[in-house]
Amino acid sequence: MKKLIFCAWIAVIGISLGCDGDKGDVGPAGPAGPAGPAGMKGDTGVAGEDALGARVITTASVKSDKGGYTFGISNLTPADTTFLSTCGVFVYVKSQNWWWSLPGVVEFSAGKSTTFNFKQSLRNGRTFFVDIRPISWSEDQPTAPDRVFESIRVILVPTESFRRANATVDWKDYNAVVKALNIKESDFIEADL
């Protein structure tokens, strides 16, 4: 019997020591340990959206001159000249609150439209021009009628960015181009010519 009582007493002590009581508060954090050694340098990785580098030349509302319009930017730096000589140029005209891609037809009020083409020119490495010229128009007259453009935007796309985005972007849709190239307000340059 003494052996049975001894075993029962050991069992009671084991059970009582295994029970959890109320948890106490967490103690204060200990002091910070010494800094570990610096890790190895990681891979460069793929360029993000901000690496596309597109720029936009823009105008406010302008009236055409003999049906077309010429504008641009001046006082270019050598870096600007290099950029402009190797970039893709996409021109958009805003009319009736809609962006129209050039070359192409731009509709104005009451069924009046003009088909435009454009040429760009880099002169003397210091000035960049875009020349928008009418090809045909809806009115039955020998000269192109003057039009009011709500705005004109020229998107300049570095060739590397153009190659990466070319297959996935609808270049005729101004809003799609701006989104695909992640163009921000800071990328806009006001035309000064």
How would you concisely characterize the structure shown here?
The chain has 4 helices and 11 strands; from the N terminus they run αβββαβββββββααβ.
How would you explain this protein's 3D organization?
The chain has a domain at 50-184. The chain has 4 helices and 11 strands; from the N terminus they run H-E-E-E-H-E-E-E-E-E-E-E-H-H-E. It has helices at 2-18, 78-85, 159-165, 174-180, and strands spanning 55-58, 62-63, 69-73, 87-95, 98-102, 104-107, 113-123, 127-137, 148-149, 151-158, 188-190. Strand 4 and strand 5 form a beta hairpin.
SSE layout and pairings?
Layout: H1 2-18, E1 55-58, E2 62-63, E3 69-73, H2 78-85, E4 87-95, E5 98-102, E6 104-107, E7 113-123, E8 127-137, E9 148-149, E10 151-158, H3 159-165, H4 174-180, E11 188-190
Parallel strand pairs: 1-11
Antiparallel strand pairs: 1-10, 2-9, 3-8, 4-5, 4-10, 6-7, 7-8
